[in-house]
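TetR family transcriptional regulator, pasting as requested.
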Amino acid sequence: MPQILNNPMELSKKQLEIIAIAKTLFAQNGFDATSVRDIAQRAKINVAMINYYFDSKENLLEIIIKHGIEAYRLDARKYNTETDALLRLEKMVEHYVESKFSDLHLYQILTNEANARKRDSYAVLFKELRRHNIERLREVIEYGVEKGTFRFYDPLLLHTTMIGTFLNFKMNKSVIEEFIDIPKEMTFERYLKVELTKHLKYILKAILTYEH
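Structure tokens follow.
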């Protein structure tokens, strides 16, 4: 197994370029449908160089996932300084959306791997990521309940709403673009990021503050 799995900071410029290309192809075409030759052709190198750097396509995928997944974990330090429950919730949503947009290709790969269930170790990583984020969401909800601002609501269901909304927008770009008028100065991704953040804040606040 290549040493760069243990020393990701020692990657060369060429290795980083190969990783970026592989990540794009894995996200667009799927891991199984992408060959080492596809990656080599896009990177304008020979197959032997990829094998020299990474040993195999499987190791390349492992590097991409293991050293990228941390960016998707909710970090309570990003929002826990807010003492107002509603502001804490808003900051958490901003952090959540920001993390999802930090690497859209990686998120697509993780989703593909979790659904395919061919490589169990990655499905486990994705499951652990979701469990971690659900627990952070639970903490925000319980804080609001203690403050008398929120009613308790199942964090699993709320997280499903958040991730489902994100994936729906992301995977239906061509359809959505037909129904919205995006300002010329904004890309679709930027528009989605801004509007998704506002939408999720509204939905979560509405659910958590709703009184029967």
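Note for the archive: The chain is about 70% helix and 0% strand.
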